[in-house]
TrEMBL record:
Protein name from the UniProt record: ATP-binding cassette domain-containing protein
UniProt similarity note: Belongs to the ABC transporter superfamily.
Keywords: ATP-binding, Cell membrane, Membrane, Nucleotide-binding, Translocase, Transport
Coiled coil: none
Taxonomic source organism: Malacoplasma iowae 695
Principal location class: membrane
Length: 391
């Protein structure tokens, strides 16, 4: 990792390459425990995450995995180190993260039990909440000029009166606009009186475009992400608390996907799921990668790591013990002895077969990731043996 220059207050800066998405430099996160001792949950961590890959972070409990990724989207703010998340820089020397909402539009986290974050009375509202609360607008300008404000009222006057019965108020608006235009905040409150919602801003030429179309787009977005996770449109108006556990989790994840972050972080995504639910979660993660997103997953389920990981980071005592491909990690005897971590079932079978017959050492080169792939690889090796004998 290279330093490319000094900015304000002599801060460190790193320029991401085209295939990079997150750069971490010397990140250290310290806590004071009950005995008043300093504990380093993350200790001088440095790494560059490649774009559009599935990165798994594994390690024993207490190795710093969750603390590390919590720094990536600003849930935690470490005082030492540096993070560049798709161009958004976080410096440990700075006391606060500037524009945290912008950071969370880049990096979104799916917690261990995401269904616990549901709280709206309909699924559509729950899915739409994230984008709206983070200020992700469909249109980005407001109060373009005086003429447009007049158009909102005069060209769509009938709709306004029909909807809100405010005919008498419209005449008063023009005088306010002419004399107090410079007081933009008060102006916005007056304009938004029509909707009785000062959090929204009128800026389009007609009332219908400004409000009805916006709500329609929100509904269509919610529909898109819900159906993407295997639930039909008729679920949108249902109460999420009447769903099964697996369905609640899919709704919660749809709400995260609706933010359209470039980086998705999953913390123990399969916790509490049955085998079918676990496989569905793996499919969701792989689909995110196909959509161009970068995915970081924390898990203790090594079978999932072997199945879909592009890259594996093994953490111990707040730092990297080893990183590489799944086979580089799970066939490293020194690492396995040190961490005592679980070995994926597929590799366990390969180890057993290879210890009894050397011909099965070919399986390490074939690198099957699932039980089906392992069965095909074993069959292929066995068939080659028969063909050789036949010749």
């Amino acid at each position: 990792m290279q330093k490319i220059g000094k900015g304000k207050k002599d801060l460190y800066h790193y320029h991401l390459k085209d295939d990079e998405i997150i750069a971490v430099k010397d990140l250290t996160c310290e806590f004071i425990n009950s005995d008043n001792k300093t504990i380093k949950a993350v200790d001088n961590f440095s790494y560059v995450f490649k774009k559009n890959q599935i990165h798994f972070i594994i390690g024993n409990s207490g190795s710093g995995k969750s603390t590390l990724v919590s720094d990536f989207n600003g849930l935690l703010k470490s005082r030492k180190g540096y993070i560049n998340a798709d161009g958004f820089e976080i410096h440990g020397k700075q006391r606060k993260i500037k524009k945290p909402k912008l950071l969370r539009r880049i990096v979104s986290m799916v917690f261990q039990f995401p269904e616990y974050q549901l709280f709206k009375d309909t699924i559509e509202k729950d899915i739409s909440f994230g984008p709206k609360s983070l200020g992700i607008p469909k249109h980005k300008s407001f109060l373009i000029n005086k003429e447009n404000i007049k158009n909102i009222i005069t060209n769509d006057f009938d709709n306004l009166c029909k909807e809100f019965e405010i005919k008498c108020y419209c005449d008063q608006f023009f005088n306010f606009y002419d004399f107090k235009f410079k007081k933009k905040k008060r102006l916005k409150v007056k304009v938004l009186f029509f909707k009785k919602d000062t959090k929204k801003i009128l800026f389009k030429k007609t009332y219908d475009y400004d409000y009805i179309s916006e709500d329609k787009v929100s509904y269509e977005d919610a529909k898109k992400y819900l159906t993407k996770l295997g639930l039909t449109e008729d679920y949108l108006l249902r109460n999420p608390f009447g769903l099964s556990g697996g369905q609640k989790r899919r709704v919660a994840i749809a709400g995260i996907l609706a933010i359209e972050p470039k980086i998705l972080i999953f913390d123990e995504p399969t916790a509490g799921l049955d085998p079918q639910g676990e496989q569905e979660m793996m499919d969701i993660i792989q689909e995110a990668k196909r959509s161009g997103q970068t995915v970081i997953v924390i898990t203790h389920t090594m079978d999932h790591v072997l199945e879909i990981a592009d890259n594996v980071i093994v953490m111990d005592n707040g730092n990297i013990l080893l990183h590489g491909t799944p086979y580089e990690v799970f066939t490293n005897p020194i690492l396995l002895e040190k961490t005592k971590m679980e070995i994926p079932k597929v590799i366990n079978v390969i180890n057993e077969l290879s210890s009894k017959n050397s011909k099965f050492k070919q399986l390490y080169d074939l690198q099957p990731r699932t039980c089906d792939e392992l069965a095909d690889a074993i069959t292929s090796i066995a068939n080659k043996k028969r063909i050789t004998k036949g010749k």
